[in-house]
Design goal:
Layout: E1 3-4, E2 22-24, E3 33-35, E4 41-43, E5 49-59, E6 63-77, E7 89-95, E8 98-102, E9 104-110, E10 125-132, E11 153-157, E12 161-162, E13 168-170, E14 175-178, E15 181-183, E16 191-196, E17 202-208, H1 211-215, E18 223-229, H2 241-244, H3 249-253, H4 255-260, E19 264-269, H5 287-303, E20 308-318, H6 320-331, E21 338-342, E22 359-364, H7 382-391, E23 396-401, H8 407-423, E24 428-433, H9 446-449, H10 453-461
Parallel strand pairs: 1-16, 5-15, 18-19, 18-20, 20-21, 21-22, 22-24, 23-24
Antiparallel strand pairs: 2-14, 3-4, 5-6, 6-10, 7-8, 7-11, 9-10, 11-14, 12-13, 16-17, 17-19
């Protein structure tokens, strides 16, 4: 990775491709084998395997999961309307020193190495996609840090795959194929870089760049900038878990969202050892970290002044990231167009400085980590901060509903709250989630926040 100074802000990383290991097992109808020019052992039947890759997914509630195996064959697979039974393939995972089976749920051919979300997936192509049950106990792709997934999975075909007419398309064999690489849609579209501020503190970050800008860097289009502030659990040196531990930055880079609202997405990560200056120096409010963050944002905007819309800079954060939002807004009240703080806490004394900034806050009433009223480290939670904003003169529109409602009902409640806000000319909205309705933990209020198109649409409507 190339270090990024205050004068240059963009960097990219390239993934390395490794040669897979091949294991053997007993199976009927074994095919003879040959050794390719790359030293790869493969079946010498009509359609040998070229490579195999894991497909992972960042989910709203279960974080980062291994959800499929994509196997590339030398020739196109045409099932002629046939369906492959999941029992035809076996997948095992060796993670954390433990080897266990994964549950295969669907298997189909495809033209690309990606999951087909349709009810009846698949089309003739050179890839075979083996979907895995995300509820498996060993489905996770990360703990505190990303798990070592290179060559950690193996897939073996244990039954012939045939067309409805009985023609053999793929023969079973004794060889298991281990994954060459790991594919994480959307996350893989973020470049990785670092920024060293004038005091010498280095912040790693990930950056998503709009597709139209990548195709035409000399465009005259100016794009919004979304800055995402992760929670305390993502303080690390891996430059990854700020994207994969919670679906925050990924939300804004999803293809469907970028089609509606193309934007730059900047996702910095606080390094270890954890900086903690003072009793409430919690991550993003640590003086050294906050100074580096401000300098990173200022430098990015300056270096990309022709393509960043400075009237549409947005702050999004959860937990200690929410705490960071309240602090940063009060330090730079004329910079940001709007903010989405979730499950945060802060200083009521500074609320009078940010009454003019559009904000949609949310918090679970029964949050045990950052209590809804009392907050943390002597600084109160969202409920108290919203009261302070009202006392300072801001109109706050409030709503309460269950955090486990189906998406359409959840968005309907959000839409009603937004109508109320517009009717009263309020630009501060506050959603409280009823006790006992935030899975899997009452602190994780953000799972529905970033899946909520009403909230995200509202955010992109805001301008200074």
């Amino acid at each position: 990775m190339r270090r990024i100074t205050r004068r240059t802000v963009l960097a990219a990383t390239a993934g390395a491709v490794t040669t897979p290991a091949v294991s053997t097992a007993t199976a009927a109808a074994a095919a003879p084998t040959t050794v390719t020019s790359e030293g790869r052992q493969a079946a010498s039947g009509p359609n040998p395997v070229l490579r195999a890759d894991l497909i992972t997914q960042v989910t709203p509630r279960n974080n980062w999961l291994v959800t499929a195996f994509a196997v590339q064959y030398a020739q196109r697979i045409d099932l002629r309307g046939g369906v492959i039974p999941p029992s035809a393939f076996q997948v095992t995972a060796t993670v954390g020193g433990q080897t266990a089976a994964r549950t295969v749920t669907r298997v189909y051919s495809n033209t690309v190495a990606e999951v087909d979300e349709r009810p009846h997936p698949g089309r003739p192509g050179e890839y075979l996609v083996v979907e895995l049950d995300p509820n498996d106990s060993n489905a996770r792709a990360a703990g505190t840090d990303p798990l070592p997934l290179d060559r950690a999975y193996s897939v073996r075909q244990v039954a012939d795959v045939r067309t409805p007419g009985g023609e053999t398309v793929l023969r079973a064999g004794p060889f298991a194929h281990r994954n060459d690489d790991v594919i994480t849609p959307v996350v893989d579209d973020f470049t990785a870089g670092s920024f060293t501020d004038s005091a010498g503190l280095e912040l790693d970050f990930r950056l998503y760049q709009p597709a139209d800008f990548v195709r035409n860097p000399r465009t005259r289009t100016r794009y919004p900038l979304v800055i995402t502030l992760h929670g305390g659990g993502e303080v690390a040196d891996n430059n990854m878990t700020q994207l994969t531990s919670n679906r925050i930055a990924v939300t804004f880079a999803m293809p469907e969202r970028q089609r509606r609202d193309p934007a730059f997405v900047l996702s910095p990560q606080i390094p270890l050892p954890r900086p903690m200056d003072g009793p409430d120096g919690t991550d993003w409010t640590d003086a050294k970290v906050q100074a580096a963050l401000i300098e990173l944002i200022d430098t990015f905007v300056s270096e990309n002044s022709g393509v960043v819309d400075t009237d549409r800079l947005y702050l999004v954060g959860l937990s200690s990231g929410g705490r960071g939002i309240y602090s940063l807004l009060s330090k730079r009240p004329d910079v940001f167009a709007a903010a989405l703080p979730t499950a945060g806490w802060g200083d009521p004394a500074v609320m009078e400085k940010i009454t003019h900034i559009p904000m949609w806050a949310d918090h679970s009433i029964d949050d045990p980590v950052v209590p809804y009223r009392e907050g943390r480290f002597g600084k109160p939670g969202t409920w108290t901060l919203m009261n302070a904003l009202e006392t300072a003169g801001a109109r706050v529109s409030r709503g309460e509903w269950a955090n486990d409602l189906p998406k359409d009902q959840f968005e309907a409640r959000s839409r009603a709250l937004l109508r109320q806000a517009r009717a009263t000319r309020s630009h501060v909205l506050f959603t409280s989630y009823t006790a006992g309705t935030t899975p899997p933990n009452p602190h994780f209020a953000w799972a529905q926040t970033y899946e909520n198109d009403v909230v995200i649409d509202w955010l992109f409507e805001q301008s200074r």
